């Protein structure tokens, strides 16, 4: 039986790292995009990573970053996976010799099969809503836009998920993983342990 993996993104507090991993999250996301209210400093990121137990992935999130920024973060923070959430091309993402995710900001007319093929080196494609500010918008997109031919082992469903819609989302899309930020928060960057637990319970409900 497939166990849908879970990434909790946009953490800024150690207690939220503990809440996420204790609830069964497979990955946590740290935002290194300064315009985001969830952006963390290198020092805070290193503190958060130190609180992550073995076998939980740490994902570093960037939006159209300068190469130097990514290299500076990698020099100070133990990231397992890079996530690029802007307009990056494959070469922009692959140059760091780390597993990387490419986010697609989904809207009608975006050919997701072509998008997937143009980022073939990605370890996964994260499908998010097309929102102002690139991501973290708390908005869903039309899941019927996801082509059946998209390899589900590469698909991470994101965008406006929460405990109320994630069971239906997983049952309809059957992604490899789901990703959430706003749906488990009390305010941007401040997560709720109760919402995290309810979200993961909703995922497990769909897994059967
Ligand atoms: O989280 C942010 O502030 C953010 C800002 C700019 C680009 C991406 C961002 N987050 C990336 C994520 O992976 C979020 O989890 C994803 O966009 C879903 O967010 P939400 O709809 O709030 O669950």
UniProtKB/TrEMBL annotation:
Source organism superkingdom: Bacteria
Record key words, sorted: Amino-acid biosynthesis, Aromatic amino acid biosynthesis, Isomerase, Tryptophan biosynthesis
The enzyme's E.C. designation: 5.3.1.24
Record's keyword annotation contains RNA-binding: no
Key word Amino-acid biosynthesis present: yes
Swiss-Prot/TrEMBL catalytic activity: N-(5-phospho-beta-D-ribosyl)anthranilate = 1-(2-carboxyphenylamino)-1-deoxy-D-ribulose 5-phosphate
Residues of the N-(5'phosphoribosyl) anthranilate isomerase (PRAI) domain: 6-200
Pfam family, one: PRAI
Pathway(s) this gene product operates in, as recorded in its UniProt entry: Amino-acid biosynthesis; L-tryptophan biosynthesis; L-tryptophan from chorismate: step 3/5
GO biological process, one term: L-tryptophan biosynthetic process
A GO term, aspect molecular function: phosphoribosylanthranilate isomerase activity
Classification via PANTHER family: N-(5'-PHOSPHORIBOSYL)ANTHRANILATE ISOMERASE (PTHR42894:SF1)
Similarity remark: Belongs to the TrpF family.
Protein name per its UniProtKB record: N-(5'-phosphoribosyl)anthranilate isomerase
Species name: Pseudazoarcus pumilus
Lineage of the species this protein comes from: Bacteria, Pseudomonadati, Pseudomonadota, Betaproteobacteria, Rhodocyclales
């Amino acid at each position: 039986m497939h166990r849908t993996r879970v990434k909790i993104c946009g953490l800024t507090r150690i207690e939220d790292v503990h809440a996420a991993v204790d609830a069964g999250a497979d990955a946590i996301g740290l935002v290194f995009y300064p315009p985001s209210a969830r952006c963390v400093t290198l020092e805070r990121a290193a503190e958060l990573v130190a609180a992550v137990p073995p076998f939980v992935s740490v994902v570093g999130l960037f939006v159209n970053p300068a190469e130097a920024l990514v290299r500076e973060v990698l020099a100070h923070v133990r990231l397992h996976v890079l996530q690029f959430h802007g307009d990056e091309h494959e070469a922009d993402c692959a140059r760091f010799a780390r597993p990387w995710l490419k986010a697609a900001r989904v809207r009608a007319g975006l050919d997701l099969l072509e998008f997937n093929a143009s980022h073939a080196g990605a370890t996964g494609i994260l499908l998010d809503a097309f929102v102002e500010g690139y991501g973290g918008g708390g908005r869903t997109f039309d899941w019927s836009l996801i082509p059946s031919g998209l390899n589900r082992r590469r698909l991470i469903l994101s965008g406006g998920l929460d405990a109320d819609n994630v069971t239906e989302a997983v049952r309809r899309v059957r992604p490899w993983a789901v990703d959430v930020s706003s749906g488990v928060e009390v305010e941007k960057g401040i997560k709720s342990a109760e919402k995290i637990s309810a979200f993961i319970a909703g995922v497990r409900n769909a897994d059967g």
